[in-house]
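Objective 1.3, modelling of assemblies. Example input:
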Amino acid sequence: MSYTQIPITRRSILKGTVGTAAAWSIMPTLQAAYAAQDSPVEGGRFTFGNGKPAEPIINPNSTIGTGQNVLIEPLFLRLVYPKLWTEGMNPPDEFELEYAVAESMIEIETDRVWEIKLRENVFWHDGEQVTADDLIFGVWWSLNSKMGSFSETPALNILGGQKLIDEGAEVGDIAVEGLTKIDDFNVRLELTVPTANYWKSWYVGYWPMPVHIFGGMPFDQLYTGEHATVPVGNGPFKAVAFVEDQYMEFEAFDDFYLGRPLLDSMVVRFGDGPTLTAALEAQEIDGMNVGGGATFDRLTTLDYLVGNIVTTPHPNGFVTNFERLPDHAAAINKAIQHAIDVDTINTQLFSNTLTPGQNFLGHMPGMEENPEGWVEREYNPDKAREVLQEAGWDANRTLEWLIIGTTSPLTDAIMAMLAAVGLKAEYRVVDTNAATDELYRETNFDIVMTNFGPYDFMEPNWKYFKTDWTFNNGGFNTAHYANADVDALIQSGLDAGSAEEANEFYKQALLLMNDNPPHATLYRGAWAYVWNTRVQGAWPYQYRQPVRPPFERVWIQES
Amino acid sequence: MRYIIKRLVMVFPMLIGITIVSYTMLNLAPGDPMTAMMNPEDMAMLSDAQIEAERDRLGLNDPIILRYFSWLREVAQGNLGYSYKTGRPVLEMVIERIPATIAIAATAEIIAATVGITVGIYSALRQYSFFDNLFTIFSFFAVSVPNFFFALMGIFIFAVQLQWLPVFGMRTPGSGSGLTWDLISHMVLPVTALALPHIASYMRYARGAVLDAKSADHVRTARAKGLAEKKVFSGHVLRNAMIPMITIFTLSLPGLIGGSFVIESIFSWPGIGLMGFEALQNRDYPLQLGVTLILATLVLLANLLSDILYGIVDPRIRYD
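Predicted structure (tokens):
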């Protein structure tokens, strides 16, 4: 979970929202334009604008955010990627994996054990072949707590993984219980428990790493020097230069397993949102993510720029602090859902790009539809007042609304809507660096606007509402929500034998949470890319479709 | 010489005072390097022991006074510490960035002094003429408007609308190194934004100084003695008028470097200002203190230089 900031910040741009309806309404136009392009040509340079990496380390096993992920994706390949998803938020039932370093995968035991065959034509940028040892080393690295790293995409639930996390392992002691090398290009992978939708998740990352480079390296040298910023990867592009605060330069890798990319080179330039926006307009960069709203609208009126709306599964809404407001928090959540006119906000502030919806778990495969008996709370100020009155809410009481960063037109609009139904609130604005303390650790607020993770599995989603799973216990239940019945149902789901069976339990839990909501979920988010029309093959680009942006298919159409 | 030594000795307690204030204020700011560097999702996955271990490693669990004095001890040995974010020596990072800052600050200063003084003198010699009035209006405008406004307007007009100049950065990726047209084109907007307010200052001071000197008794005497107007101007007016310009010149140096915090951030110019700004955001205490120390030293040395030069050009001024 992270806090909500104003739309012009980079983080909020990433969390900026775009509606499914809007996305699909413009998609035919974009696809038509895409289809009408000339044949791809080789050569040229593609320049993408992005925020600075949070740390000068380009390595899948040390990632803190999008700034690094954008640089990692052209350089490193995962074992597999979720295949092209068709439409909607989640992969369809006939979901297929897109193989990268892996050539094929045989399921030995449902959702738990696989035998994986690696491609023999995947090479590191220094010419070495990618082998099973690299895969085992990469997974070992991502989990080994002594490596001093944190990966956003670790090998979740793998057998022996927790031991590596808890105890760590020393240099050279490379072994993962759940990964057995059969030969140089075949491994057996074993999870601790059957995990439905395991390979569908963006968060499950199996990144082979070059053991011939890092295998014997002391841990304190892993993230320093040339290998930190100009690493040897195995993706379509090779790292050429990393200039801190300025840019990272890549060139096409001739021996990429899918063939040499069309582009000769690629550059990611670093800057803040407004600077990059100006650079995009000045045609100094070819693409960036601007977020939905006025900037997106203005840029996409220019004839040389084209918008690309990308839906995301993050639910957005309010957290109300049950610890501070034990008798009223649930009612306040319901009242907020009735009080906020999401459609007007969508039209006025987000260019009709939001996806209204209150189902907190709709981003989990099989949970997209609201369960029978679900009540969607429509905008109705009278109903909001009624809910508050029934709960005995004192209209003279003022809620402390925690704002991380600065207020925005969105928060001002919502403040007015809340006031209109008798929910008086006052901003308490704190510095972004205080977010961890104020929001997560101390939960020092009555209400706060936030977005929640888009996880495909139940366990990370449960962190937002499981009793006592607060930040200090490794979770994100900042609402201090406690509902033993919900917890029991979720646990039953986790213990269930199949995804279908589990989802039935989750749906029952969802109904209980609908009646006694831990949060006031309001809508889902999206990203809004803008591309120079000379860039081909990069758009229409959809979040997770595929996960890895198809850099090798991007080409430049010179006018 | 005694005076210079005395002033140099005074620099040290002043620097210590500045670092104490900076250190205290940095530590009073909300959050700490851990919360600034790690996103909450990552942090929630660490155990208390891991968090404490990391805080110990960064020295954040020690009392602030202890941390300050251990930092000071290292500084006395020439070690400005290590950046929390990159783990690199602060001195090395600062030294790396100084040339970029000097490139725009020095260029801006040279342009500001040359243009400002020239126009100021021209204005004074043609007092109340059309050009004098025009330059006066310009100078009031340029002094009143903050330089970030010029920066943003420059980007809007010359980079976005006309597309004559680049929006940001120091070089186009892959354009080579050294002094190239690409580098110069990237410098134009930041240098102009930095220089404009200083041009205006120089203009006003130069104009005022020349007008004062023109009406001085010794100038009238020189004219009365029949000295040619050119000689009166160069030997008596200009020489005396330039004395305050030395103060303006040296005292504007810290302002230029301080102004680079804003200008470098706007243009993503990889100098010490941008690094200092990001160190503030990242709660990178050692780096921020290193930047502060260097900037404070420059300010104090610029003041000292101003006094010394003043004594050299004006023999009447003597320091005891």
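Chain B has a mean pLDDT of 86.
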